[in-house]
Amino acid sequence: MSMCIDKVSGYLEYLTDGLLKQKSPPKIPVVGEPPIMKDVINVKKANFVIQAHSGVGKTTFGLILYHKARLGELPGHDVIYIDMRGAAEAVRELGMFSEEKILRILFDHGSDEFKKVHEKIYATRELHLKCETFYKCLSDIDKRYSRKLIVVFDELDRVYQWDVVNKTLIDWFSKTRKFYDETFYVPLKLIILLPKVLKVKELSEALKHANEAAAVFTEFKELEISEEVLRGYIRNLGDRVNPVFKNILKYNGFNRLLKTLANIQSGRHIFPLLWKALSESVCKAVNNQVQDDVETFLKDIKELHDIDSNSLLDPLIIGIAEGMPFKTLYSRSRSAVIEMWEEGFNKLCVEGRGDVEGPRPLRIGYQNFICNLSSSTFIWMTLEKNISIETLRKIMFNILNVIGEPPSLINVVALVPKFSRGIGITNLRVGGEGERGRRGSSTRSITSEFKFKYRTLSAGELLSILSVAGLGGVDPMIADHIIKEIGQDIKSLIMRAG
User: Fold this and answer.
1) Coil, strand, or helix at residue 218?
2) Helix/strand/coil percentages in the chain, nearest 5
3) Are residues 299 and 379 part of one domain?
4) Which of 173, 201, 222 is the last residue of a domain?
5) Beta bridge partners of 89
6) Could you please report the per-residue DSSP string of 356-397?
């Protein structure tokens, strides 16, 4: 069984990831197109910031645009996609920001700079523009080419400091607006792929402050792998491999699986699981008798079997996707799951502190976790479905009890799952009789004002929190990236609270 699943799953991975990475693949990559793909093409604006967590599919999004243009599916458009981190690794001097060098790499394909990094650039047209400023490049593109150009920057934030990225993007976005105001034409669309962190919101706010007109000319979008994207992937698999694959869209097991995977929101989590499920369906249908020529083998398949999500996925993965973060079966106890959440939250606390170890988190009941960054700043993560004002007061009173002399104002960064209800209060005064000393031999009157800053946690983010605590079936590298990105948001919220 495992040999059959490995062969089929490996081939399905090749049809997507393997073909996407090739500049001229022998066949069309099998993908599911996110709805915002149409916005990028049809919306008459020049600037697009696409944000998503690591592993959700930003790179795939850029490569899909390249292949669609290569195949003539974007009439009137050419695409240049650049992996900035890969380019900087190939040419070390790119690590120091230089607009002139970046422009030569993008628009002068006869330059030495382009030749050094050409493997990291996917371009549907060869350009020979010797323009030293971004605005001059816009003008030259307009004069020399009849087709519009889409330029996709990936990993820009991994190469340069955020203040450099912020300043550069505001300048470029302002230049595209200036060119449009003078010509009423958009010869180039900029697509910037960025991680899902609060700094993207800071970019939006800074752009509005610097140039309101450019801000109106810029779309900020979040990339998501929705259930419809996954269904589109299955339909494309049916069109390009074997129509029988479309039949699984009618199966109950697969429908539940697609809903679960869509909630996970990480392509590097989702697609290996989907490929495994498809492979299991195929292998059951053929009694595990797979041929060496998998391509021909799949074309000849006459039927597929439904799958059981419970046997394919860890119950915790399904539970998190369905808003039940403590779901477990015989594989582990509830107490073990609680300990996993505590361990994962501790990792978040370390990131929030700036990689400085501190005391272990305080657990209140089994659904609330608190760690302190100082006597006046705390991180609180809840896994409760419904939170009343009474529950909130009890949780905050626990904070007062662990502080020797609580300050009059306490800032709380609240991490709340999307499935939770009843949260939204920004200020809360909490007081009462608290314990004095470890044994509570006497009491004291304690009162403080709590100020809350909220950060919603998606199912994929919750999954990553558990992954660092040992949950299998999830790419640990991607989970670690997501934890770091949430940590950045915690730091940003703490700064705003202060």
Assistant:
1) strand
2) 50, 20, 30
3) no
4) 222
5) none
6) ---PPPEEETTTEEEEEEETTEEEEEE--SB--HHHHHHHHH
Tokens of 383: 């896994």
Q: Give 409's strand partners.
A: 449
As beta bridge partners, residue 23 has: none
Examine the domain organization and report whether 107 and 127 are in the same domain.
yes
Q: pLDDT tens string for the chain (498 positions)?
A: 589 999 999 999 999 999 999 999 999 999 999 999 998 999 999 999 999 887 788 999 999 999 999 999 999 999 999 999 999 988 888 889 999 999 999 999 999 999 999 999 999 999 999 999 999 999 999 999 999 999 999 999 999 999 999 999 999 999 999 999 999 999 999 999 998 877 898 899 999 999 999 999 999 999 988 999 999 999 999 999 999 999 999 999 999 999 888 887 666 778 888 999 999 999 999 999 988 899 999 999 999 999 988 888 888 888 888 889 998 765 678 899 999 999 999 988 888 877 566 677 889 999 999 998 787 899 999 999 998 898 899 999 888 887 778 889 999 999 999 999 887 789 999 887 665 444 444 566 778 999 999 999 988 899 889 988 888 767 778 788 888 889 989 988 888 765
Q: Please tell me the distance from the alpha carbon of residue 65 to that of residue 69, in angstroms, as a whole number.
A: 6
* Cα distance between residue 413 and residue 492, in whole Å: 10
In the DSSP assignment, the letter for residue 108 is B
Classify residue 418: in a domain, yes or no. yes
SS3 state of residue 42? helix
Which residue intervals of 191-333 are DSSP H helices?
198-210, 212-216, 227-240, 252-264, 267-285, 294-299, 309-312, 315-321
C-beta of residue 139 within 8 angstroms of C-beta of residue 67: no
- For residue 338, what are the domain limits? 334-497
Q: Number of structural domains, the chain? A: 3
Task: State whether residue 71 is helix, strand or coil.
Answer: coil
Answer yes or no: is 21 within a domain. no
Domain CATH for 123? 3.40.50
Last residue of a domain, one of 203, 222, 241: 222
Q: Are residues 435 and 351 in the same domain?
A: yes
Beta bridge partners of 447: 431
Same domain (yes/no): 250, 188: no
344 within a domain of the structure (yes/no): yes
In a domain, 20, yes or no: no
Q: Is there a single domain that holds both residue 343 and residue 457?
A: yes
The token duo for 403 is 């502080």
- Greatest pairwise CA separation for the chain in angstroms: 84
Tokens, residue 470: 């040992």
Q: Please check whether residues 240 and 209 belong to one and the same domain.
A: no
Q: Is the pTM of this model over 0.90?
A: no
**Token digits of residue 492:** 């940003």
Q: Distance between CA 297 and CA 300 in Å, rounded?
A: 5
Same domain, 272 and 286: yes
Residue whose pair of structure tokens reads 């079936």 in the numeric block? 473
